[in-house]
Design brief:
Strand content: 15-25%
Strand order of the largest sheet: 1-4-2-3
Largest sheet: 4 strands, parallel
Oligomer: single chain
Number of helices: 5
Radius of gyration: 13 Å
Number of strands: 4
Order of helices and strands: EEHEHHHEH
Length: 112
């Protein structure tokens, strides 16, 4: 099982495997034709309320992770895990911070 994360604005690579967007909102300024996204899984993204509360404030990240894990749908997460059983899956996110975002949290959970 190989999962990795990458900012959706970075150039797609042949090593990305299946490219899955894990944001609830479409990334600003990115054309759907340019994104090279295989699947958009809004259902694994944090709720709008949690995303707004977090606001990418570093001091809230630990609590964001706790709340996000709690609200994460087991069904949607299971679907994501299944997707990565036999191939590489790159989780795409729009946030600027490569370490404090929902894709990083998903990756941490998937690697357990």
């Amino acid at each position: 099982m190989t999962f990795r994360i990458k900012r959706v604005y970075e150039k797609p690579a042949s090593t990305d495997g299946t490219r899955v967007l894990v944001d609830r909102l479409w990334p600003r300024g990115l054309k759907k034709t340019d994104a090279k996204i295989d699947l958009w899984m809004k259902e694994v993204a944090p709720s709008t309320e949690l995303r707004r509360w977090f606001g990418h404030e570093p001091e809230r990240f630990t609590e964001f992770k706790r709340r996000y894990r709690k609200e994460l749908s087991k069904e949607a997460f299971g679907e994501l895990r299944k997707l990565g059983k036999a191939k590489t899956v790159t989780l795409l996110y729009g946030a600027r911070d490569p370490e404090m975002n929902q894709a990083a949290v998903l990756l941490e959970i998937l690697r357990r």
